[in-house]
Write a structure and sequence with these properties.
5 helices, single chain, 2 domains, 136 residues, elongated, two-stranded antiparallel sheet, mainly alpha
Length: 136
């Protein structure tokens, strides 16, 4: 956390008045009253607390944006099932790097209309299943 005061940069909040006074003196601030020192230390500590609170709130917000643990577990399960199905038909794929797998699937999707039609069928079938769940 950086604090700037007329060209003075304090890298971290000093723990004591002595540390603050030493930092100020090292930077040419020789004449500072005890009262000014107390106020400056108080300001630095309040800013540090405010920054910590902002950081905590940002973490809380990003947690809200992420899916719940159950949703993540379900997604992981679905991905494992898909991967298992693919590897059961083509065991060699298990030995490819992630980059090679993505390149392979990218080529398949762009050059093989049969695969595209199968994926479209899967998407349509899934939409139909979701629709029937609502009515049933």
């Amino acid at each position: 956390m950086n604090y700037i005061m007329k060209g003075l940069v304090i890298i971290t909040t000093p723990k004591t008045k002595t540390e603050l006074l030493q930092t100020l003196r090292e930077n040419g601030y020789d004449r500072i009253s005890d009262d000014q020192l107390d106020r400056l230390l108080s300001i630095l500590r309040k800013e540090e607390k405010a920054e910590a609170e902002i950081h905590r709130l940002n973490r809380t917000e990003s947690r809200k944006k992420t899916k719940s643990k159950a949703e993540r577990a379900l997604r992981t399960h679905q991905l494992c099932n898909i991967g298992g199905a693919v590897v059961s038909f083509y065991p060699e794929l298990a030995y490819l790097s992630p980059e090679d797998l993505y390149n392979l699937f990218n080529k398949i999707l762009h050059y093989d209309t049969g695969i595209e039609l199968s994926i479209e069928y899967a998407i349509t079938h899934r939409s139909n299943l979701k629709g029937s769940d609502k009515s049933g």
